[in-house]
Amino acid sequence: MVQARLAEYLEVSVREQPRLRMAQLNIRVREPIDGPLEEDRARADLHAYFRTRREVAELELRVNQREGWRFMLRSFPLLVAALLVAGILFVYEPVGKTGTIGDIVPALVYLLFITIVWVLLWDPIEKLVFDAYLLRLRIAAFAKLEAAPVRFALSPVTSNA
User: Fold this and answer.
1) Which distant-in-sequence residues (6+ apart) come within 8 Å of 127 by Cβ?
2) Among 65, 110, 126, 152, which is least packed, fewest CB within 10 Å?
3) What is the mean pLDDT of each run of 10 residues along the chain (161 residues)?
């Protein structure tokens, strides 16, 4: 019933408003609606559309959280091993600080293991923190649109002649 670009525009418009401000949908139609029953059906369809979009965003939030925690748990042993190796290399100090390759190798291996830890943690943190925040904003916007009163008005047809 609602075009994707229009729905995206409405979502972004509502997200731009202050959080506590109620939304209201004023829809201009070119032809009069056949009666109050048709208007009520159109309102119900709009509310159902935004309720479905909200439910999909809530589902995506739950899936992201489950995937984030699952990946964190599965990668935990590797994470601990990489942190342990990085910790040992951090504490390790070569006896002779001659600037030779033998002194640089532990530092490079340390950086490699710190990078492994960072890569292992990035996706779960992104899903559990950053994506979750944005999805909650979308859920709130769709809830506002779902609860918004809808008003239809007849728009005069203009000629481009």
Assistant:
1) 64, 65, 67, 68
2) 126
3) 80 85 83 84 89 95 94 86 77 57 69 83 91 94 91 73 51
